[in-house]
Amino acid sequence: MNPAPRGPAVIPRVPMPMVRPSHPATAPPPSLNDPVQFLPGVGPRRAEALAKVGVRTVGDLLEYFPARHERQEFRTIEHLEEGMTATIVGRIGAVAQKYSRRGPTVRATLIDNTGRCSLSWFNAPWIADRIERGSIVEVTGRVGVYGPLAEFTNPKIAVLDKNAPPVDESRPARLEPVYPATADLPVRAIRKLILDNLDRLLPLVQEPFTESYRRERDLPARSWSIAAMHRPTNEVDVTKARRRLAYEELLLMQLAVTLARHQRRSGPAAPVLKSSPQIDERIRRRFPFRLTKGQERAISEIVRDLAADRPMLRLVQGDVGCGKTVVALYAGLVSVANKHQFAIMAPTELLAQQHYRSICRYLEGSRVRHSLLIGGLPAARRRQMLKEIEHGEMDLVVGTHALIQEDVRFAKLGLVVVDEQHRFGVRQRATIKSKGPAPHYLVMTATPIPRTLAMTVFGDLDVTTIEDLPPGRSPITTRVATPLEQSKAWDFVRTRLGAGEQAYVVYPLIDESDKVEARAATTEYKRLSQQVFAGHRVGLLHGRLPQEVREAVMADFIAGRIAVLVATTVVEVGVDVANATCMVIEHAERYGLSQLHQLRGRVGRGAARGYCLLMTGSVGGAEGERLGVLARTTDGFKIAEEDLRLRGPGEMLGTRQHGLPELRVADLIRDGELLRMAQRDAGRIIADDPSLTQARYANLRHWMESKYRDALTLAGAG
Ligand code: ADP
Ligand code: MG
Question: Rounded distance, CA 683 to CA 702, Å?
Fold first, then answer.
């Protein structure tokens, strides 16, 4: 690869020409780092409101971009269409002011050459003082209907000169920036503040890219783009400006992840864990089945990573049941064969126990020493275990993230497997203690995430995707059902129970709360056990039950002593029962699609067909449409993409968890192409100057650090 882009990619900071302020009365232009309060019209109150939306400096204000641009058509009254946003010019007919329980209302009629329409304002009595019969006004707003007339409710209004010309419908539409607003920071205030200051702030904007760099990528200048976002002239310009700003945002992010990746790999060395045909053969003998293609590929990538002295940092993603545990165990046994220890960290104790159970099964008769480190062990047993681990007398340890991070010291740790399931807390993983070289890391996740998102959230990891499932899985039939179909749903579950199978009923909450009218698992449990499933044994499982109770309930369900398990989402990560074929999920609309997909992955794990019923209040409309995706496909990636499209990355991953700043302009669904370009460019820049210390990158480095300091620190800790 040719590492450096043609010409310097980034130019050093250039002093910008001073420009006289347009208002002679105001002070000379501030620096973009000045507090926003420096600007005329911003007092302490406004500054506080601005700080709440993250605008602290003058530069922040410039980068407070509109969420969208509203297209305003110039129309005559006869051409108004319901739902559109339009601007009309006309003469006020009558004005009336009324007081009702809802407060003061101003009503008026507006007349132009083509017809009449109605205007109304609530809680804005001053409007009545500004207009009178005969005033010529320009009105902008959304068009509604009031009786036979088109109506504007709370429109913007400007009183024009008596001789103002009527609306010219051939005038191009006007674009109005719509800013994210808050109660104490209305859109109008933001718009005015930005427009009042734009001209004098724009010259302060610096351009980090050279002409040629921009030309090659068809990117307009930074200050031009900022201006086009705030004071748009047409849609084409807005699109160009948005693309430029999105690119810049993505490039900074990709620089941060590429740098983090680079730093991790140049940190302390890792143990070299080599495989051989003998080792491979011995490990394979542990599995009573042929590995799938996906498993084989994952294993060969991992084996290659382990044999290098740089720590492996690999994410294995694949749908529930694709056999990730097998892959992890294979890797762990390579470590053990090289006389190094192996740890698996799971997000919950239930899941740690499950991993341990299946690992015990695979390791039956082997000499590999393994143990489960969970809470509630007798103190002496725990001390003993820790000693064995510290002295290298234990090969394999399974536990929860918290426990393993706390106080365990490993004699010779070769590999750490972090099972994230649906959680994306990968950034907490850094703190495991090990004497000697840094261990290799393998992160597993069962929520496949779209590629663009993986590039951002897991940009510092190598990603392996397992796309196939082991053969012989029976498909899950999923249906969306309304409360009206509830009794049919229960009938259906009873037929499955009659066939000797088991079922889950999942509720979103543990207790009834005033705020959320969910039927809680606890309340429903009573009803289900006494009425709906009378004659069957029903169990209750939720996170607030004491550990022993939870374990006993699980043991009963696994052994088939409980037929129906009423549970909160704890089943999502905890349970693997082949005989459970049926799952009813109440209030399905409260979950993300990926989460529902995870949940239903608990059924149909055996040879019998699985069924999932998604109960929701609304089968029609957007909600039914969203849930319908689950009925149509079982492809976790398609589902994840749909989830991302509908809910956005923050919601999908939990914003705080993924550790990267929110993207303001870029959109991971629309801007996939741009992201790949940014990734490629970031790779070249880092290859050219891994620490960004060359003078021509100084500007970029500074910029990236100010935005990504937290993410970089975290990455550096790994
Ligand atoms: P995941 O962790 O990806 O959800 P697991 O590793 O728990 O999946 O595997 C799910 C089930 O599939 C387990 O019961 C496991 O024994 C079985 N399994 C894994 N790999 C294979 C395979 N190649 N062929 C048949 N069964 C497999
Ligand atoms: Mg698993």
Answer: 18
